[in-house]
């Protein structure tokens, strides 16, 4: 019994270390969100910080409402990609460990 508890504690400690490493890796990663067929591009970090906004010259000055909509759509695309990237990374870290349905990781 004592040995089994020690094994569980070691596994928990390893998982905690793996989660911290995964969080650091995710924070450093970048994704590109796009809209309008690539006319608006957003670069976003794993922390959901926008690093760069690129707007094709053909959109500047003509239709402000459309440009605003395309920027919002590109940001949303990047946010969804960050979310997907985090889920994939966390599934690698927690592989083989039974996690209750609906449990959210601490970030």
- In what order do the strands lie side by side in the largest sheet? 1-2-3
Structural class determined from secondary elements = alpha+beta
Number of strands: 3
Task: Tell me which oligomeric state these chains represent.
Answer: single chain
Cα gyration radius (Å) = 20 Å
Question: DSSP strand (E) fraction?
Answer: 15-25%
Q: What is the average per-residue confidence, as pLDDT, rounded to a whole number?
A: 81
- Fraction of residues in helix: 40-55%
Count of individual helical segments: 2
Q: What is the succession of H and E elements?
A: HEEEH
Largest sheet, strands/sense/barrel: 3 strands, antiparallel
Q: Which residue ranges are poorly predicted, with pLDDT under 50 across at least 5 consecutive positions?
A: none
End-to-end Cα distance, whole Å, is: 34 Å
* General shape: rod-shaped
In words, what does this structure look like?
With 107 residues, this protein is of the alpha+beta class. 53% of the residues lie in helices and 17% in strands. β1 and β2 (40-45) form a beta hairpin.
Features:
107 residues; alpha+beta; 2 helices; 53% helix; rod-shaped
What does the secondary structure layout of this molecule look like, with pairings?
Elements: H1 2-28, E1 30-35, E2 40-45, E3 50-55, H2 64-93
Helix pairs in contact: 1-2
Q: What's a quick, concise take on this entry?
A:
The protein contains two helices and three strands, in the order αβββα. Helix content is 53%, strand content 17%.
């Amino acid at each position: 019994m004592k040995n089994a508890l020690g094994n569980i504690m070691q596994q928990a400690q390893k998982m905690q270390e793996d989660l911290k490493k995964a969080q650091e890796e995710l924070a450093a990663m970048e994704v590109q969100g796009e809209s309008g067929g690539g006319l608006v591009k957003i670069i976003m970090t794993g922390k959901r910080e926008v690093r760069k906004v690129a707007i094709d010259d053909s959109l500047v000055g003509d239709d402000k409402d459309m440009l605003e909509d395309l920027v919002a759509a590109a940001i949303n695309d990047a946010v969804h990609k960050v979310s997907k990237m985090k889920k994939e990374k966390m599934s690698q870290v927690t592989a083989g460990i039974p996690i209750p349905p609906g449990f959210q990781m601490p970030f």
